[in-house]
Design goal:
By secondary structure, this protein is of the alpha/beta class. 40% of the residues lie in helices and 18% in strands. It contains ten helices and ten strands. Strands 2-3-5-4-7-8-9-10 form an eight-stranded mixed beta sheet, sandwiched between helices. The protein has a two-stranded parallel ribbon with strand order 1-6. Helix 3 packs across helix 4 and helix 5 packs across helix 6.
Length: 282
């Protein structure tokens, strides 16, 4: 019996060490030099202050057409480069575009990635930046994963005209449990609390503060929620939970055969058709 206990204790200890290592790596900043914007965007580098404590770096892509502006918000550990292809088709459609790096990513400094908490302050600052350029313009947001979470967690609620949410988790508990189960099966569910307990002492934020599902009813503009049909990180049931709590008008689209991936890349033509039709109703 004793050898079994020793083996179990060693396994449990190794698992805990791995969990803490993963927690550190996910929250650790991902700073990188972005460089110049792609020439075809004709973008201007910009910087503005955020209540997150960061000076947010990004690109502003103005157009002469009066279609409004779209703020593009990247996913976790990604930066504005991940949103360039979206910026291209939106620019062709006549929208001005703002692409940003959240605090802790790209060229925007920060101590930790906070799974949407501090990033929500960057979203508020970005909307204020856009309002300062064109106070009367219609503004839409496309937020991928963490970007969508940050848009929903923004307090006070964002005053924008349209919101596209891609692969957004309803609660951090569900998001963590899904990922732990994906990698460790039933044992992952048991270890989920150990991962969540890192939030407060590592990031000074609690799991109860990372619940986009509690905020979506405060969104006053039309919402388009998109997720992959085979997404195992943000599962269809999670997406429906978020959708059901939202106010009308609201729309839901599951991208066929897509997992937790870049949904624009997974279904480019249909994605662009659906998103442009949605934005055209602003």
């Amino acid at each position: 019996m004793r050898p079994f206990l020793i083996i179990f204790a060693a396994f449990a200890t190794s698992a805990m060490i791995c969990i803490f290592a993963v927690g550190w790596s996910l929250a650790h900043p991902v700073q990188t030099r972005i460089g110049n914007a792609p020439a075809d965007l004709n973008a201007q580098p910009i910087t503005f202050a955020s209540d997150s404590g960061a000076n947010v770096h990004g690109w502003w892509v103005p157009t002469e057409d009066d279609q409004g502006a779209v703020l593009l918000l990247p996913g976790i550990r990604a930066n504005r480069l991940s949103m360039v292809d979206r910026a291209r088709f939106l620019r062709r459609a006549g929208y001005s575009i703002l692409l940003i790096d959240f605090q802790g990513t790209g060229e925007t400094k920060g101590d930790h990635i906070t799974f949407g908490w501090k990033e929500s302050r960057d979203v508020l600052a970005a909307v204020s930046f856009l309002r300062g350029i064109h106070p009367t313009d219609r503004i839409a947001i496309i937020g991928s994963s963490l970007g969508g979470v940050a848009a929903l967690l923004a307090t006070p609620p964002l005053k924008v005209d349209a919101l596209v949410l891609e692969e957004v988790y309803p609660t951090i508990e569900i998001a963590t449990r899904n990922r732990m189960e994906n990698y460790l099966g039933g044992f992952g569910r048991i270890l989920t609390p150990a991962f969540l307990n890192q939030l407060e002492w590592r990031l000074d934020v609690s799991a109860s503060q990372l619940r986009p599902v509690d905020h979506i009813a405060s969104v006053a503009c039309p919402v388009l929620i998109i997720s992959g049909e085979k997404d195992r990180n943000t599962r269809p049931s999670d997406t429906r939970m978020l959708f059901e709590r939202g106010r009308s008008p609201k729309h839901l689209w599951f991208v066929p055969n897509a997992g937790h991936v870049d949904l624009h890349r997974a279904a480019r033509e249909e994605y662009e058709t659906r998103v442009l039709a949605f934005l055209g109703q602003m």
